[in-house]
Each structure stands twice: as structure tokens, then as C-alpha cells.
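This part of the workshop introduces the protein records we will be handling. A record pairs a protein's sequence with a compact description of its fold. Comparing a sequence with its C-alpha cells is the quickest way to learn the format. To make this concrete, we reproduce a full record directly below:
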Amino acid sequence: MSYIPAVLPDGRGLRCNQCLGRNQYTCLNPTSVPCHNSTCATISELSSFPDKDFPTYYQSCLNLPVAACNTRMRLSVTGYMKLRVTFNCCNNKNNCNRAQYEWQEEDVPSNSYQCPVCYHENSTEPCDAGVNMMNCTENEFECVTFIGTLKRGDDSVRQLSFRGCIIKDGCKSGFAGLYGTTNVGNYTLTCKDAKKVEISI
């Protein structure tokens, strides 16, 4: 799976809003484009690092059924970084993705799964989680390990290694096609099932 939307110019069929806002929670001056055999999509991305948040907002065509793309992508490294991507799709009328999506970070309780957690910047040596564990939330059912280099929303480059929680099958997509945070150069991204535990309330 790739997060890169397929823009399909065509003189017939549905029309969708298209725009890109980097480092902002919305985008200005959208244009209307033809999207034959496609759906209208709004993609909201938020990449948070210890020093700064990088929001990205994108509207265009997405070559997927509506039911398949109304989803959320999550990656969490408690206390250090997080990645949230929300896909909203529609095809009931022209430019149905006109509405601006308001990003709201919910206070999501633990889902009773845990993963090792650590974060190391300015190095591609594996970080050591030791006995440190974090509670996963929502649809995060796998543990992720990343070693490599990321380009952030302001085009700054960081060598990173981290471990944390990610959505099921998150390693199949990784950072491919994201507009705010992307991997550059060689990197290692691995996932395995998270551990189910009893959470004391």
C-alpha cells in the first residue's frame, strides 16, 4: 500500500478539490480537477518530534473505494514522536472534499497491548529500550523498529532510531508517499506483533 494519491485527469465523471498545505493544518486556494473512476480524498498528516510538530494537509483524487480509505494511520513513540494520518473520502457529489478537516488529537485509552519504547536522534545505531515499555492505543497492534534517516516537514534531515507502537501492517506502507515526513536513503523498518497485557485501571 502506498499513501500516494492517484490523480487521474479525465474530462468525464467526478470532480475533486486539489491542494497541498505543508506545515499547516489546511490549504489555501484549492482547484477543482476531474477524477474519473476515483474518489475525492482529504489526507491530514501530523508528524510530531520532541522539538516541533509538522502538519500536512492534502486534497485530491484517490483511486480507492470510499470504504477502503476512510481510515487512520498511527505510529507512537511515547514521549518522543508520533505520526497520525487520517484519510477521509467521498464520491457523492462534485468537490465533496471541499470541507476543511479540523485535526483533533483524541485522548485515546490503551488497547491492552504494549511494545518496547526508545528514541535516539543524530545516530543510526539501534536505540536500547531495555525494560521500557509503552501502552499502545486504538488500532496499534504491532511493535515497530526504525533505523535510518527521515526528512521532516521543514526539509530538515534527522538520523533516528526508535521503537514504539504502529498500526497492524504498518510496515507494509511505512513512510512511502507521505508529504510531511519521508524516509531518505537506506533504512530498516521492521514490525512484529505487540504483547497483550492486563492494564490496571
About this structure: The first strand starts at residue 15 and ends at 22. DSSP finds two helices and 13 strands in the chain.
